[in-house]
């Protein structure tokens, strides 16, 4: 499975847009990209998932360039409650026979300041 | 649906003791996994299972045993606890064949003295 690289930490202020980039140089054709958010003392929760180009939901946007070797999670107008650890995960697309080791890595600690 | 349920929430062990962390899901997910989380280390995969009777190792399997006798349950066993196993443990599940997200439990805080 493709491993990922993210910044260890980022800081922002309330109301700003935050972009967190994840590198996955060894991504395979059938891999998709998923982002999770984790608050202290809680398990991670799903934010957004995509395969190529752009995906948007009510929480965030995910930008994936044509070569798919990186992806950017965009959080519009962050608030204090967005302070959390964000994980980028790359895994096989719907291939049950080989789905197995889903590696999360260390994630990015985002701190939002007032 | 209760989702993914982990018990206990907190546990203190002495070195050498054994215990089982319980994980149950009611979503009929084939895939279940265990992670441990240590400060600054992110989430590290211990063991996973793609169905009843099928388990495999992750990144940090040493010191842990698992089995999967039913679709619903995936217990994690510590046969002889060590201080290095002090951590927060998370169980997660998802469908094996659908392009679905992982659902996580609320975690078990384990301290080994």
Write a brief caption for the model:
The complex is a heterodimer of chains A (114) and B (113). Chain A is mostly beta strands and 114 residues long. Chain A has no helices and 9 strands.
Describe what you observe in this structure.
- The complex is a heterodimer of chains A (114) and B (113).
- By secondary structure, chain A is an all-beta fold.
- Chain A has no helices and nine strands.
- In chain A, the strands form two sheets. A five-stranded mixed β-sheet of chain A has the order 1-9-8-3-4, with no helix packed on it. A four-stranded antiparallel β-sheet of chain A has the order 2-7-6-5, with no helix packed on it.
- Chain B is mainly beta and 113 residues long.
- Helix content of chain B is 0%, strand content 51%.
- Chain B has no helices and eleven strands.
- Chain B is globular and about 40 Å long.
- The chains are: A mainly beta (114), B mainly beta (113).
- Chain A binds chain B through residues 32, 34, 36, 41-46, 49, 85, 87, 93-94, 96, 99-107, and chain B through 4, 30-31, 33, 35, 40-45, 48, 50, 56, 58-59, 90, 92, 96-99, 101-102, 104-107.
């Amino acid at each position: 499975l493709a491993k990922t690289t993210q910044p260890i930490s980022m800081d922002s202020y309330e109301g700003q847009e935050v972009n967190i980039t994840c590198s996955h140089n060894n991504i395979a054709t059938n891999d998709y990209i998923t982002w999770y958010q984790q608050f202290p003392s809680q398990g991670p929760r799903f934010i957004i998932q995509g395969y190529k180009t752009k995906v948007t939901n009510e929480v965030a946007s995910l930008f994936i360039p044509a070569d798919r070797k990186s992806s950017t999670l965009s959080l519009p107008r962050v608030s204090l409650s967005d302070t959390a650890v964000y994980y980028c995960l790359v895994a096989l697309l719907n291939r049950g026979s080989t789905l197995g080791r889903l590696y999360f890595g260390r994630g990015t600690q985002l701190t939002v300041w007032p | 649906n209760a989702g993914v349920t982990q018990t206990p929430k907190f546990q203190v062990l002495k070195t050498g003791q054994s215990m089982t962390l319980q994980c149950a899901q009611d979503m009929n997910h084939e895939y279940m996994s265990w992670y441990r989380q240590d400060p600054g280390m992110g989430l590290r995969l211990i063991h996973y299972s793609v169905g009843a009777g099928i388990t495999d190792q992750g990144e940090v399997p040493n010191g842990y045993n698992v089995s999967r006798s039913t679709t619903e349950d995936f217990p994690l066993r510590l046969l002889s606890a060590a201080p290095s196993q002090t951590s927060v443990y998370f169980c997660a599940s998802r469908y094996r064949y659908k392009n679905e997200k992982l659902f996580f439990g609320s975690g078990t805080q384990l301290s080994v003295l």
